[in-house]
Write a structure and sequence with these properties.
Distance between the termini: 71 Å
Helix content: 40-55%
Strand order of the largest sheet: 2-1-3-4-5
Radius of gyration: 22 Å
Structural class: alpha+beta
CATH architecture of the largest domain: 3-Layer(aba) Sandwich
Shape: elongated
Strand content: 5-15%
Number of strands: 5
């Protein structure tokens, strides 16, 4: 069924859609992107004001996409049905980036790895701890969100990490988590957890290649800083 004639904003909506079909999102304001997403499940309602209100409330397009359905429905003009487009597109985008990483060697494709991590956990308001499982050729088998923490900390349990690695038949692991503060520098707890994970991996014959902390358009690499190799040597020195 087509849109009802005389619908407020119908011509504007069609122009937005045509602009997108012609040249993608180039030249779109963020509120126009949100507006398009709201229209996916809203055939007979103008969504422009609601889209602007969402941007005013959440400040950025990323924050709108990360908002829960409950938070979105607090915005005047947005209900469960027309928040559907926002949540659907975000979920599809997450899966698309994850699938792009599968069967890749992330150590040789750092751009795709960081693109995945930035999109997946870079804008979270709580700490998310991710595990990337690798096979014996260092290709990605799967990814997993191991824990969702508070604003300043997440709970990581080496025994559960090892269990997940064995369940996925992984030979090696990459870890990543975000710092909602935007500063990727590791805390003493981050260093301690990384050491525990490296040691647990050594015991079980699992190689730990990396632990990345994602900040605000920046990151910290334990491997680049030589800390993963140092922790591995420490284990060999003290426990072998």
């Amino acid at each position: 069924m087509g849109e009802k004639k005389g619908h407020k904003g119908a011509g504007h909506r069609q122009r937005l859609r045509q602009r997108f079909l012609n040249s993608g999102l180039e030249g779109f304001h963020d509120y126009e992107v949100v507006e398009l997403l709201l229209t996916l499940a809203t055939p007979r309602k103008d969504c422009k004001d609601a889209a602007k209100a969402a941007l005013a409330e959440f400040k950025t397009l990323q924050a709108v996409l990360e908002a829960s359905s409950y938070e979105l429905c607090k915005i005047e003009g947005i209900g469960p049905k027309n928040s559907f487009g926002i949540k659907l597109v975000k979920a599809v985008s997450d899966r698309y980036r994850e699938k792009k990483l599968i069967q890749k060697v992330p150590l040789n494709n750092s751009r795709e790895l960081m693109d995945f991590l930035n999109h997946d956990i870079g804008d979270k308001t709580r700490e998310y701890f991710k595990i990337i499982f690798l096979d014996s050729k260092n290709r990605v088998i799967a990814t997993e969100t191991h824990s969702k923490g508070t604003l300043t900390a997440s709970s990581v349990y080496p025994r559960e990490v090892v269990h997940s690695a064995l369940a996925n038949k992984a030979a090696a692991l990459i870890f990543a988590h975000n710092h909602p503060s935007g500063d990727p520098q590791p805390s003493p707890d981050d260093v301690a957890v990384t050491r525990q994970l490296v040691y647990a991996g050594k015991v079980m014959g699992l190689a730990v290649h990396e632990h990345i902390i994602v900040g605000d358009n920046c990151y910290y690499s334990f491997a680049d800083q030589g800390q993963i190799a140092q922790m591995s040597r420490e284990f060999d020195l003290h426990f072998k």
